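pasting for ref
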Amino acid sequence: MAAKHSEADDTTIMEAPPPADGDADISFAEREEEDETLDHSDLFAAVEESVISCRPLVNFFYHPTDNDDTTTKLTTRQRRDVICNIVKSPKFNKTRARRLFSGLTPLLRKVVDEESYCPDEDDNGEIIVDAHAASTLSVMYLRICAFLVDAYLDGLLKRQRKGTNNNNKRVEVIDEVFEVAEMLHDILFPLQNCGKEGMATQSAIFAMCENWWHGNFDDKELFVTQLIPLLLVKSLEDTAQKNDVKRLYSIRDAIDLLDFECESITTLKNHLLRTVANPLFLQSTEGKKFITHLFHVDASLVGELHKAIKVQLFEAKRSILNAYGEIYYNAWKQSADKKEEEEEEEGQGEIQASIEENALQDMMYYQIHAANPKIASSIRIVLDKFYVNKKSPDVESMLHRCYGPLLWRSLAATNARVRLQAAAVLTDTFPLRDPDAGQEWTEACVQKSVEALISLMSDEVAAVRVAGSNATAKILSQFWVAIPANDIRKLLNRKFPTFSITFSSPIPQDIIAKHASDLTSSAVRATAIKTVTTLLEEDKTHAVLRSLLPSLGNLIHDKAEKVRLAVVEMLLFVKKLRGMKYYHIVDPQNLLCRLADEGRGRNNPTGPVAIGLSELLSNSFFPVGKKKTMSDIINRTLRLLTDNPDAAVTFYRNSGTQLGVNSISKLIAALMRCLCMLIVQDKKMNCEDISNLSIVMADDEIDSAKVPPNTALMATIAESISILWGSIEADLKHEQNESAADILMEVFSGNVLTEVYSHFESKTVDGLEDAKMAECSRACVAILNCAGKMKETEIEGLRAHVIGELAKTTDMPPEKRTRVNFSPNMALLCEWGMTEDVAQCLSNSVLNYFSPDNLDGKPKTSKKRKQRGKKTAAKDELPQLDIETSLGILGNILKGSYPASLSARDSIIKSEAAFTAISTALQSARTAAETIIKSQLADESEVSIAKIRHIGNAIECYGRLLVHREAMRGEVPMRLSQEAKELLSWVTDNIIPSMMKSVEAEEENSLSKLDISAISGIGSPMACDDPPRRKSNRRSARESGVSFLSSDQATLNTLQEPSKHISSISAVSIASASSVLSTFAEWLSICGAESFLLIHISKWCEVLGATDNIKTRESLLGSLFHVALRSLKDDRDATVFEELLLHLKDVDPSTKEKEIIIESLSIITSLRDEQIATQALATIIYVTRSIIVQAVGNGNAAFLDMVGPGMKEVLLGILNNKRSSLLLAKCLLNEPKVSSIRESLVKEIRANSPMSDALEAIVRELSGENVVTDGETEEETGAEEEPSIILERSEAAETSELLSQPEAVALES
C-alpha cells in the first residue's frame, strides 16, 4: 500500500511497516513502485566518496540531492530506515559487509584520532552550534557508522537464529565490523561534551553496544566497559526516567565482569551505591531487581550496600521501607536458591553468608538495640517480609541462625528499651527454632519463649509489660493449638508481684486480671483489655476466657479514656460473637451510667467512648426490624429517659453515627409524640384544653400513656429532640432526604410548637422552685431551637407569642426577671430574619441606660412613656427592655451557649447595621465610665454598684463582640482590630492612671471598707473557661463550675452593704479593667500572644505593687493570673507571668490573694504538658534570682524573707506541693552547678517539700554539686551549665529513666 503525502506538510510521509522476511533488501522506494530506487550500490558509492570528507555519506543519509526522486517522498527518518534495511537484508552478505565497513574505517579512524568531532567553543567556553561545521559533520558521520553497525547486527542475528535453535551460542562477527564498533565504543565518554548532536550520537552508540551484548556476539564483554558507567550515571540524573533504569537492568549481568577489588573501580562503586537511595530505582520493579542483583555481584559489596541502605532508614517513608524489605528478602532468597541449585559454583555460599552476617544480622541487632524507637520500627518494616514467610524452612532456619545469638540475651538485658524491642522480635519470630533439629528441640524452644513472655509481663517497667502483653496475645492467638496446654496455663495463670505504688509479695493472680488492675500505668490496663480482645479472635479461646471477662467489666469506669475505650471496643467485639453476651461482662446499668458520665465534665460527649457505647446500645433503645413497631420504640424511649436522662441525651447526641436520616427523623417524631403525651396528661390534671396537641397522636396513644407527667423528663425529651434535629439539619436540605423532612413537618407544623412552648413558659412564671424552673427553661430553649430550624410560616402564633413575652418583662419583678433567660427568644427572631430589629431593640435599651441623664442608674421615665407602655406592642415591634435583660441576652448570644445563640451571633456580626448599632450602644458604657471618672464631684456623687456592674458587663460584651468579628473574617493569623487596640489603650491611658490616683485617698474613702472585689465579673454573662484541672481530679477545687478568676456566684450579686450607694473612681476602674482583661484572656487562648496586647497588660501589673488596698488587688489579681496562664499555655510566652511575679514582690497578700496564688500555681504545675510547667518554674527561678540580687545587702535575712511576702507565697505554694516541688528540683538541674540560688532552693525543698524517692534522689544529686566559694557570685564562677532536660509525663518518668541507660545504642550513620 502506497504511503501518501501529508496535506499539511509535503515533506512528511507516514512511516511504512517493516519489510517481510522475503523482501528485506527491497527498498522503500521499490515498494512504492518508483522508477528510481536505493540499493547497496548507492550506499557503497556514498561510502567510497567519503574517503577524505564526511559530507558525501552525511548528505546521502540526511541531505539527498535534487535529482533523487525519493526526496519528496521520504522523511529523514524513513530514508535512514530504508538504508538500514539494505544492510539488514539477507542479500547483504559478508563480501558486501567487508566492502562497506572497510570503506568506513579509514575516515572513522581519522575522525577519532584527530578528535574532529569535538565542537569549537567561544571565549566563555560555550559550544558553538553550527550545522555546517566540520565537527557537526564528524559527529553525524559517527552516528551513521553506529546505525550501520546496529543494522548489520540485527540482520546477522536474525539469520543466525533462523539456522539454529541454540540462542546461547556466540555469534561471529567479521573483523571489519568489530573494528568500527570498537572505535565507536571507545569515544562514548568524549561525546558527553559534544552538545546536542554529541548526545544523539552517544545514544546511537548505546543502542549498538546494547545490541552487541544482548545478541551474544563475539567479544561482547569489550563493549560494556564504558556502557555500564554511562548508563548508570544517566539513570541517576534528576531528569532520568524509568526507561533508563530498565536499560541498565537489561545489562545487569555485565556488572558481574567487573573487578571490585581494583582501586580504579571506586567511582563506579560509589555510583552503584547511590542507586539504593534513588527513588526512581526504589519505585520501579526493574530498579529493585537491579539493586537485588548488586548483592550477588561480589561478597565485598554486600556490606557497603547495607550501610548505604541503613542510613536511609530514619527518614524513609513506609513505601521505601517496604521496597528495602523486598530487596533484602529477594537478595537472600536468590542466593539461597542458587546455593542449592549450584552447590559447586564458587562464591554463592560466600554471598549468602555475607548477606546474613553483614546485612541481616546487623539489621536485626539494631532492631533490638536501637536507641531511637523510630529506627527500630523502620527496621521491623524492612524485615517484615522475612517474618511473614517464617513458615518456610529456609527462612525459619535463617532467622534461628541470625537471631539465636541476640534475642535470648536481649530479653534479659538491663536496659528496658532493649527488652521492649526484643519482645516485638520474639512475637515476630516465634517459635525461634531450627526446623531440622527435631521435635524435642522445638518443645525446648517453645518452653524458652514462654518463660521469656512470663518475664516480660512481670517486668518492673510499664512499657515492657505492655510489650509483653501484646506479644503474649499475638502468639497465643496464632499458636493456640500448637502451644501445649501447660504452657498456656503458665501464661494465663501464674504468680506475679502486685504492681501498685510499691511492689508487694507475690500473690497467685491471673495475669490478664493482674495487668488490668495495674495501678501504676493506664497503658498496661488498656493493653490488658486489648490482649483479651485479640485472644477472642481465636474461637478456641472462648471457653477459657468466658469466665474471666466479667472481672474486667469494672474498667468501664477507669479514669483513663484509653482504658475505657479499650473496654468498649472489647464489648463491641463480643457483641458480634455467638455464645457470648456483652451485658454479661458489663451490666446495662453500668453501661448507662458510663454513657451519662461521658457527657459530663471534661469528658467528650461525642468522643470515641461515647460513640462506642451508643453503638453498643443502639439496638436496645432503637431496635430495627419488621417486628419492631413505633410503640416499642416509644416505650423503650420513655424507659431510657425516665431511668437515666443524662445517658439518653448522650445517646441521642451520637445516634447520628449509627442511624440514617430517615431513622432519626422517625425517632424525633416518636420523641415529640412522647412529649405531647406527657403534656396532655399534665393538662388533663389541670383541666386544660388538649385539642391542639391531640392532633399529633391517635386517641389510643393518649389513653395508653402510663408515664406520669414529669417536668425533668419532659425537659430531657425536648433537649433530645433538639440535639437529634441538629445532627441531621444539614442532611435534611438534600433532595434524597425529602421524605425525612416531611415526617418532621407532619409532627411539628401548625401550632404544636407554640402550645408546647407556652406550656413550659407558663411554668417559669408560676413561682416554681429553682430546680423545676431550670428544667422548664431548658425545655423552652430546646423548643425554640427546633422552631429556628423551621420557617416562620410553618409555625402558627409563635412569633407573636415570643414578642409578647418580651414585652411583659418590664412588668416583672426584678428578682423574677433575672431568673428567666430571654436570649433564646431573641435568637429565634434572628433565625427568622429580624436580626436588625433585635439589634435595634438591645442597643436602644443600652443607650437609654448609659445616657448622661441616667448617671445614677435610675431610669428616667416620662409620662408619655408610661402611657405608651400600657399599649399592646405591635406585631413586629420589639419592646424596649431593661438593662439587666439586654446585657444578659447579649452576653448569652456572644458566649454561644447553644447552637441558636451561635447562629444569632453570626447574624449580628454579618449584618453591618446590626453590628454598628450594638457596638455603638456598648461603647456608651465607656463614655459613662469616663464621665464618672472625670467628674469633679466624683468623690461626692452617688453611683450605684449596679451601675458599675453594668458598665463592666457592657465593656466586656463590647470587647467580645470585637473578638468575634475578627474571628468571622477568617484571616490567618488573626490580628487585633483598631477598635480593640483603642480599647486596650483606653484602659492603659485612662483607667489605670485614674485607679493609681485614687489609691492615695483610699484610706480616707469609705469605699476601702467595702468588698468591691465582687465587682470583678459581677453578673458577667460570659464566665471564663474552666482552668485546666489536675489529671487525677475531674473537677477543680471549686465545684461551682466557675473559674477561679471569677468570684463565687453566691457573693457576686451582693455587697456587704447592698443598699448603700458608693462613689468611687476605683470601683469603675476596677470594673472596666477586669472586663477588658477577661475579654483579651480569651483572645490569647484563640489567637495567641500579640506584642501590643502583652505590653499593655504588663503595664496593668503595676497596680499590684502600687496599692495597699486589698480589695483592689483582689479584684485584679485573678484576671491578671488568667491572662498570664493563657499566654503561658497557648503561646509559651512568660512575659505577663514574669511581670506579675515581679510586682508581687512587695505585696503582702491577703487570705483571698493567697488562695488565688496557690490555685494558679496548682493549675500551672498540673498541666499535662510539663514543658509549660517547666517554663513557668524557670520564670519563677529567674524572678527569684533578680529579687535576691537587688536585696544583696540584707544578707542576714532568711531566704524566703528576702524575696518579699508575695514571692514567698509563690515559692511556698511550689514547695508544699509534691509534684511541683519535684518539677522545681528537675529545673534546678539546669542551673549552674555553682549557684547560691540553687543551694538556697535545695535547702528550702528539704525543709518544706514532701519528700518522695524521686525527689530525694534529685536533691542528693543537687546537694553534692552545690559548693559556692565565699565572696564569689554566680557570674564570677563561670560554671558550665548542664544541657537542658526534657520532662516526660509523670506516668512514664520511671520508664524514661530506665530507657536512657547506656545499653541502648544509636544507629550509626
